[in-house]
Amino acid sequence: xxxxxxxxxxxxxxxxxxxxxxxxxxxxxxxxxxxxxxxxxxxxxxxxxxxxxxxxxxxxxxxxxxxxxxxxxxxxxxxxxxxxxxxxxxxxxxxxxxxxxxxxxxxxxxxxxxxxxxxxxxxxxxxxxxxxxxxxxxxxxxxxxxxxxxxxxxxxxxxxxxxxxxxxxxxxxxxxxxxxxxxxxxxxxxxxxxxxxxxxxxxxxxxxxxxxxxxxxxxxxxxxxxxxxxxxxxxxxxxxxxxxxxxxxxxxxxxxxxxxxxxxxxxxxxxxxxxxxxxxxxxxxxxxxxxxxxxxxxxxxxxxxxxxxxxxxxxxxxxxxxxxxxxxxxxxxxxxxxxxxxxxxxxxxxxxxxxxxxxxxxxxxxxxxxxxxxxxxxxxxxxxxxxxxxxxxxxxxxxxxxxxxxxxxxxxxxxxxxxxxxxxxxxxxxxxxxxxxxxxxxxxxxxxxxxxxxxxxxxxxxxxxxxxxxxxxxxxxxxxxxxxxxxxxxxxxxxxxxxxxxxxxxxxxxxxxxxxxxxxxxxxxxxxxxxxxxxxxxxxxxxxxxxxxxxxxxxxxxxxxxxxxxxxxxxxxxxxxxxxxxxxxxxxxxxxxxxxxxxxxxxxxxxxxxxxxxxxxxxxxxxxxxxxxxxxxxxxxxxxxxxxxxxxxxxxxxxxxxxxxxxxx
Length: 665
Prior knowledge:
- The protein is α+β, with helices and mostly antiparallel strands.
- Among the domains are: 21-187, Arp2/3 complex 21 kDa subunit ARPC3 (Orthogonal Bundle), CATH 1.10.1760; 324-411, Beta-Lactamase (2-Layer Sandwich), CATH 3.30.450; 503-664, Heat Shock Protein 90.
- The chain is 62% helix and 12% strand.
- The chain has helices at residues 5-19, 25-44, 57-68, 72-92, 97-122, 131-160, 164-182, 198-216, 228-238, 241-260, 273-318, 344-349, 361-372, 406-464, 470-497, 511-528, 546-563, 594-599, 608-612, 621-631, 658-664, and strands spanning 324-331, 337-342, 357-358, 376-380, 383-392, 395-405, 508-510, 532-537, 541-543, 569-576, 580-587, 635-639, 647-653.
- Strands 3-2-1-6-5-4 form a six-stranded antiparallel beta sheet. It has a five-stranded mixed beta sheet with strand order 8-10-11-13-12.
- A hairpin with a 3-residue loop joins strand 10 (569-576) and strand 11.
- Residues 1-20, 315-322 and 657-665 have low confidence and may be disordered.
């Protein structure tokens, strides 16, 4: 009987289901109670006069419960429990029976949609183990959010006469945020060791808490919603996925609580409570989704790296030296050979039943090798052996023999060829991994840049509108300014995460043209501060990526202009040597101490004075410069002359060294 692929898949799924332990009764009880309590809490969080809650943690708990149970019957029972618990919670909070029942049904449908999509694409063993699974999880969460939004909005319109689109958007955002924050705990992959220490985790947690307090504290009114992202990226790239998911949940709850308390960048005086909560929920959806995608992608990288290391160790261990048989022989006066000592390997290679007297093909080969002084290869019942013999000094009748099984040597050669094939496969796998990382960077770039571009574009339209007053236009300017800062931060993070290219694959960059473009772009800002921004010298063409050179110069010149006081001077000097092109960006700013220069190229490092004076920045500019210069085969250094200021010197390889040009001509 032949099984179809569908039958095989169904059998595998059933075996997987049976191999797992049934969900305990206390787990059912705890899950239902948590969903009921979270639903009551969600109803209590509803603004006065609103039909829906600000946040609905029961959505995440509901999806988590359905993910934890096993088997179709148990999942159906979990969906029924979700319907009953959420409907009773709404009724207990004072909502009409029909509305409560409709909301309970909508919650069950949301959990069904999310879990059905995940099981459809990944089967019962679906886990957040790679970038593809994270993106599928995000798609399932958004599909469930759309379903709950449509159903809840329809219920509100039919039974309470509310707004369909406003309700649908509000409900979808609050539910998606909850599912992103809670449901991943039911999809955690197996543990993989990481290099991060507990101390580093504590430091990162304290840093994230401090950033959240600064951004969302009621006493802070600055629009700094982008600041938690780089700190959260630290956890996603360095820590176990369990730590990253837990930290995302705690950070999201803290930011939501501070937003409800009246703090954070979403509490504008022109927005009512519901609008502020909706903005906060939308922010939490992107925040939690960003963390899940990064953590899953990093888990995939760790798993692939461990697999490659394990394969490498296996290959190294399989390449062992062939065993050599050693024996000591003795010649009698009549020319007979006797074996007076042999090791176990030699005993195994000698013919069966051979005693102290040695005869046969191997004995004849030993005589010839001893006479000729060259090794002889013979084929016998033990296999193909190479026999080498030499006399023992001061013992004219005794000699030593080495027996090498050529069969083992051939096996070793075959193993070597197999190892080379495996190493080639490993190299191919690494190349595929690098391609996947490049695809991830490109996908993330598109997904992050598109909404930021939309924000900037609509800000420009709003700024040109006559319908806005001066105060509203000021708000639009704040949004536009921070959108541009967020765009720059995204570009910085993508640059740091990009895969380094080999130097031999670099293009040619006109350094003089790049300097001219950067100086021209920075001249407006320099003019506002009355800074003398000038260039000197001639550089020529470097063997580097033009985009990388432009970004290096942009960061260095922007830093020099930013830290130079009004009326100062910034000079960009370039020169071409035999093998390198040198560009020096010098300013008349406050300079850097030796301690600051030692950490200037560290990621996210900012000088204490910059933090104290609230100078804007993320601490990634010089880190990006170092990354780009290194991957283009160059070098960068900082120094502060005694007269003051800072000098940043970069060196890049020339397109064609002078010596090669002379030989070519």
